[in-house]
Amino acid sequence: MKRYLLLLLLFQLSLICSASEILSKKIAIVDTPNTWMHDFNTAFCCGKSELKNTVLYQDEEGQTHYTNIERIGNGVIAKKQFFLKNSVCEKAQLFAFHASGLELFCNGKELKTGKTLTSTGWYVWDIPPGLLRKGLNEFVFSGKGTLVIEPSLFPNRSARSLNNGQEWNFDNLGVNNGDGEYLVRLRLQPHPEKGIITSNVYDLLYAADTRNIHGVFTSAENLRLVCRGNIPSGTSISFEYRSGTSLLYSPDKWSKWNNLKKVGKTWIIDTSLKNRFLQIRAVLTTVYPEKTPFIEQISISGDVRFSDVPENLKVVYFDRHDIVATSIPFTYQEPTYRTKALREKYNLDDVIKDGNTEFEKFVLLRNWARHTAVKGWDWGTGMWCPPWDALIILATNKQPSALCMCTHYSTIFTQCAISLGFTARQVILDHHCVAEIWSDQFNKWILMDTGNSQNPEMNCHLEHNGIPLNALEIRTLWKTGKGDEIKFVYANQSGITQKERDDFESSYLKNFRRFAIPLRNNFLGNPFPGELEQGMSNYYCDRYLWWEDTQEPVESPEYGKTSNRAGDFYWTLNKTFIDLVCQEKDLISVSLCNNAPAFSHYLISVDGGKWTRSTENFQWKIHSGVNELQVKAVNFFGLECPVSKAIIEKAF
Q: What is the enclosing helix (H) or strand (E) of 294?
C-alpha cells in the first residue's frame, strides 16, 4: 500500500512539473525603422533614418489674429533677432507673414527683393549663407507693409523703431502696443543637433512562440541590440529602452526610459527583463551641422523563458491586428454637455438612421451638414467668421447672421460625427477645407468634402476602384498622373449640371498640392491653441501637421511641423487586442487593450452567448471541443467598435 501511494505521489508530481515546464528559446528580431515614429528633427528617407537636413528657427506658433499687425513705413521699422549656435549651412530662407512690399536687411546687408510663396500669405527671402554668423543675427524690415504679431513676453527678440532705427523698443509692438514676437521664421539647411526615433512595440513572448496562445512569460535573458548604420566622427547614436506589461503604452503599465550600455559593437538592453513588451528609442546627435548619423536596421537577440501550453489546446482562429501609430500626440474630443447638446438638439441619430452601413451613415450626415445652410459664403448680418464650433455655426448659418463657408461645413460634419461616437477631424487643403473620418467598415480614414460649392448637392467623396479615398491617396494618384482614375461621388447627382461638374472636377485636384491636419479635434468648446478665424486668412498658426513627400519641406517650408511618414496622418483606431495566456490546463487568462478614443468599457461574448460588460482582465474557462471568444470596445458616446475574435479547440 505504501509503495502504491508513493508511486501515485510521484506520478502527480510529474504532472505538475510537466504542466509548469519552463521553456527557453532564442529570439532574433530584425527591424528597419521605416515604420518607426520620428520627431520633427528626424526622418526616414532612402532606406535609413537620420537627422533631417533642415531646421526651422521660430519664437512663435502664430497663435494670434491676422489683424494684430505692425504697420511699417513713415519712420516705423521692425527688427527680428535669431540666435544661432552654428551658422554653417548650404541654404537659408527667411519667412514673414503678410510682408509683401517690405525691404529686408540681414546683419546690415540689404537683400534682394523677396517673393510670395505659392498660394500662401507668406513672403520669403533667400539669404546668402555667408551673411549669417554664430550668435546674434538681426533682420530689419523697412519699406511699406505689415508684419503680424503673436502676443508673448519671451524671448523678446522682436522690436520696433519709430524713428528709422535710432531707438528700439522690445516691449511695445504693433497697433495694440503690446509685447510679442513677429511672425518671422528662419529656415536653414544644416542638420539639427538632436533627434529621436522610437521603435514599434516588440512582443518578446510572441517572438519566441508565434502561437496566439502562450504560457506564462518568465523573463527575457541577455537581451542585446546590434545596429546597422553609420556614425561619422562628431556624431553619435545612443539607445534607450522601456518595457511594459501591455501591448499599448500606458504609464501605469510601462517603465521609464533606461539607457543601454554599449559594449563593443553591441548595446546591452537587460540581463534579465521581467516585462514581456519592449520598445527601443534611438537618440541621434551631431556637433557638425553638415553631418548626421543614420540607422538602417537593428536586431535584437536574447533568450526568452516561458511556461509551455498543453498540447491539446489549438488556436484555430485569432484576430491579430496591425498597429499603425502616429509620432505626434493627437488630442481627441471627450464627451461633454456640448457634444450631448449637439447630438440631441439636431436629432443627429435620426439624421443617419436610414443608413444601412456605416459609410451610408457618413454620407447622410455629410449631406445634412451641407444643407443646414443652403446659402453659403455670406458674411451675414453679423459680418463675423465663427470659430471651429458646430453649435455656434449651426446657430448662425441659416439667416445667415455669420459666415458659413467650406471650413464651417467641414466643422459641422466633423463635430456632429464626433458627437455620434465616430472619430473625425478637419483637413486643410490648398485654399479649401474638408474632413476625414475613421471608417471601421473600410479600416481606414476617408475624406468627406461637405462644402465645396454654392450648390449644396455637390458635397462629395472621392473613390478609386470603388474604395473611398483619403487626402494622401488622392494626392498620390494626382501627382502620379492617375487623377483621371478618381471618381467623384456626389450626394445628389441629379441636382448638378454637367457644366457644374466639369468646371469643378477640372480644377479640384489642384487643392491637393498640399494638405495638413490639426493635431486635435476637441475644438467644440476649446478654441485654443489655434487660430480664431481658420480659413478667413491664409494659415499662419503652426499647430497643424503638413504632409511633405520628402524630409525637406518643399510645399510648406514656412511651418515647423511637417512629416513624410504616412502613419503620422493615418493611424489605426478602434481595435481591441486579445492576449491569451494559459496558466492552467483548462483556464486561460485573457487581457484586453484597445486604441479606441474616448474608451468606456468592453463587451464580451463566450460561445455565441449574450454580450456582457467586462473588465480588461478575466479568466476564460475552456471546455472540450470548440471555444469562441468575441470582444469589442465601446466608447463613451455609446459607439460599439469592431469585434475581435479568438477560437480555441480543446481535444478530448
A: strand 294-307
CATH class of the 22-48+192-308 domain in this structure: mainly beta
Region of 378 (left: φ > 0; alpha: ψ -120 to 50; beta: rest) is beta
Percentage of residues in the chain with pLDDT exceeding 90? 89
Tell me if 22-48+192-308 shares its fold with 55-188. yes
Cell of 292: 548626421
184-202 tens-digit pLDDT: 999 999 999 999 999 999 9
Q: Report the candidate in 168, 82, 522 with the shortest Cα–Cα distance to residue 331.
A: 522
Q: With CA atoms as reference, report the closest residue to 329 among 522, 526, 568, 546.
A: 568
Residue 101 grid cell: 512690399
Furthest C-alpha separation in the chain: 115
User: 125: closest CA among 63, 150, 140, 135?
Assistant: 140
pLDDT of residue 20: 53
User: Could you tell me which residues are beta bridge partners of residue 331?
Assistant: 520
Between strands 55-57 and 184-188, the pairing is: antiparallel
Checking if the pLDDT of 8 tops 80, the result is no
What are the boundaries of each domain within the chain? 22-48+192-308, 55-188, 337-526, 576-650
What residues does 206 pair with on adjacent strands?
A: none
CA distances from 260 to 254, 266, 610 (A): 17, 10, 49
Cβ-contact 377, 386 below 8 angstroms: no
> What would the CATH number be for the domain defined by 576-650?
2.60.40.10
Integer Cα distance of 373 and 453 in angstroms: 12
Query: Residues, the chain, total?
Result: 652
Compute how many other C-beta atoms are within 10 angstroms of the C-beta atom of residue 325: 17
Q: What are the pLDDT digits (tens) for 233-266?
A: 999 999 999 999 999 999 999 999 999 999 998 9
Distance of CA 147 to CAs 58, 97, 113, 533, Å? 15, 6, 16, 18
Kindly give the residue spans of alpha helices, DSSP state H, lying in 489-584: 498-508
- For 580-616, how does the pLDDT look when each residue is reduced to its tens digit (9 = 90+)? 999 888 899 999 999 999 999 999 999 999 999 999 9
Angle, helices 337-345/406-419, rounded to nearest 10 degrees:
100
Show Cβ contacts of residue 489 under 8 Å, excluding neighbours closer than 6 positions. 460, 461, 462, 463
* 3-class SS letters over 378-444: CCCCCCCCCCCCHHHHHHHCCCCCCCCCHHHHHHHHHHHHHHCCCCEEEEEECCEEEEEEEECCCCE
pLDDT tens per residue across span 203-234? 999 999 999 999 999 999 999 999 999 999 99
